[in-house]
Amino acid sequence: MTDIVHFHRLSYRYGDSPDVLTDVSFRLGQGEMAFITGHSGAGKSTLLRLVALLSRPTRGQVVVNGINLSTLPRRRVPEFRQQIGIVFQSFNLLNDRTVHDNVALPLVIRGYRHQDIGRRVRAALDSVGLLGKEKMLPLMLSGGEQQRVGIARAIVTKPALLIADEPTGNLDPQMARDVMQVFERFHQAGVSVLVATHAIDLIRRMPHRILHLDHGRISQDSPSGFQDTAG
User: Fold this and answer.
1) pTM of this prediction?
2) Can you list the pairs that 133-141 forms with residues at least 24 positions away whose Cβ atoms lie under 8 Å?
3) Domains and their CATH numbers in the chain
4) What's the confidence (pLDDT) of residue 228?
């Protein structure tokens, strides 16, 4: 299986602080879905920031879709990020824009034609079960629906890799299950998915690999199902 993400002995620290991540090595295969767990401050969000090149490693290497991010020139960073869809815990939607306009934003920024934008937005909303709500404002939707709008925005450009940072953290249990099922559908369609989460009970029921971070180190890498460690 071809790797889409490869961390090799990667460490990261903020300024002169102790390492947030220490000697982290793992591979995520093309089309694979995996979860990152760990206590607050274990380094989950930092790991995803490194995948998205929002931060660069202090030591070691991270390679995403064949690109060594440690040496990627700054001018090529925007082009690289077009390969990744990012989903946030806080939704990060524009509340004065319609659902359609929120999902269309990445396409507008990249200069897609108007007719292509409409087609892609409808397809993205259909894939998350929100077709027909294009004209609504985000605050008219439930929390789970707002998160699904965020997912539609992340996948509207058809990225090779979808990453999500605590995407169910602000949702009730049923909404959280619905959102995880959306990620599962994208995985089944061939998208690589990497999710940082505290939702242990939820992901324990899903047959996917779990990487557990403990104080910046990978302490557990289970092929599927979560065993003993919570966080």
Assistant:
1) 0.91
2) 133/99, 134/98, 134/99, 134/100, 135/98, 135/99, 135/100, 136/98, 136/99, 137/95, 137/96, 137/97, 137/98, 137/99, 138/91, 138/93, 138/94, 138/95, 138/97, 138/99, 138/102, 139/95, 141/99
3) 1-83+159-226 (3.40.50.300), 93-158 (no CATH)
4) 45
